[in-house]
Amino acid sequence: MARHHMTQDGKVPFTQEEEDAQDAYEAAEISTHAPMRNWKRDMANFGMSRSMENHIKEVHGGVAGNAFDQAIYDAKVARRAQRP
After folding, report:
1. Residue 42 Cα distances to 17, 47, 55, 82, angstroms
2. Which of 55, 80, 75 is nearest to 65 (CA)?
3. Do 48 and 76 touch, CB atoms closer than 8 A?
4. pTM assigned to the model
5. Tens of pLDDT along 17-62?
6. C-beta of residue 70 within 8 angstroms of C-beta of residue 64
7. DSSP reduced 3-state for 55
8. What's 68's DSSP letter?
9. Where are the domains of the chain?
10. From CA 29, how far away is CA 65, in angstroms rounded?
């Protein structure tokens, strides 16, 4: 789909140079922001809220109390350490 500028006269298509510049800009944005966006998505989808993670850390010294929660907690702490 071709890009365009909106002017008083309506849509004006990008020149090839503008298309190339916009493509390069978008590629740079994706490569720059994708790691953080993926990390945030992973952190949100671990199945344990940040408040629960903090509770286990601060009140229980990092010991969740059962194997299931401990596995999730340990995985989330490890992933948190990999923040881009």
Report:
1. 37, 10, 20, 11
2. 55
3. yes
4. 0.61
5. 999 999 999 888 888 888 998 899 989 888 899 999 999 999 999 9
6. yes
7. helix
8. H
9. 1-45, 46-84
10. 42
